[in-house]
Design brief:
Layout (H helix, E strand, L loop, with lengths): L14 H16 L12 E6 L5 H12 L3 E5 L13 H9 L4 E6 L4 H8 L4 E6 L5 H15 L6 E5 L6 H10 L6 E5 L8 H7 L4 E5 L2 H4 L5 E4 L10 H7 L7 H4 L7 E3 L20 H20 L2
Parallel strand pairs: 1-2, 1-3, 3-4, 5-6, 5-8, 6-7, 8-9
Helix pairs in contact: 1-11, 2-11, 3-4, 5-6, 5-11
This protein binds aspartic acid (ASP).
The site of aspartic acid has 8 residues, from α6.
Amino acid sequence: MLKGRHLIVPTDFTVDELNDLFRLADSIIANPSNYSDVCKGKLMASLFFEPSTRTKFSFDAAMYRLGGNVLGFSDPNTSSAAKGESLSDTTKTIANYVDLIVCRSPKEGAAKLMSKASSVPIINAGDGGHQHPTQTLTDLLTIRYYKKSLDNHVVGVCGDLKFGRTIHSLVKALSRYDNTRFIFISPEELKMPEYVTKELEGKIEFVQTDNLDKVMDKLDILYMSRVQRERFVSEEEYLRLKDYFILDQQKMQKAKSDLIVMHPLPRVNEISTEIDNDPRCVYFEQAKLGMYIRMALIMRLLGV
Ligand code: ASP
């Protein structure tokens, strides 16, 4: 039962609970009109202390498509946070008015802290460079949709593995499925944090490389990511690393015919637009699936 629960990291839900969400998303995709007023009278707060396009729009669209309503902000300067109110106090207050809170913050651990103060479910929509569990739900639904199963994949994860929160969440989640093997592809400076690799050691097969070309033909899934400019202390270092990998036609020629290329978006330069029409590139479809899985998530947390 997910009713009343928080979602802070993807492993807050069991594999069975996730399967239930995926099945509900399948049913919403097949018959959206059956769900158009299941959240009538319900209110969702959408608190974005950091920029967002897909997460915010897909959550808001999800709630509206379920017949509910949304209120909130995407500019924290319009809330009392700008007067120095603590996140805990803001949360306690807003929880009085709504049935569910979706929150993004630049600070690692913010969602966890909010969950301690809140009387309604908190959904972590990204906390700094830490985790982004609803992107992971989107990613898992996408893999299941295109590959029919979440087991037995060689998954290449490429780009900014140090700061990419969607990556940290995805690796955690995929580690629970059978025979997942990871190839982590990054420059030395943006390697996967040790707290992530430590959890894999002895349990999940993984290798680390800085050469995307060399591993292209081994992958079932390639998860690309942008270099996370906003988390760098030095702009110079960002500029030096930002175009380290560019996925283009030449690299795609080496890949399997049933590879899927995913990306949480936004893209900067790491995927050349010349391959957008390659049927193996599913990142925009992935963004669409994100709305359906968020519809399923909202329904389950509200118990409607
Ligand atoms: N949209 C994703 C996030 O919020 C990925 C990114 O920004 O690179 O983490």
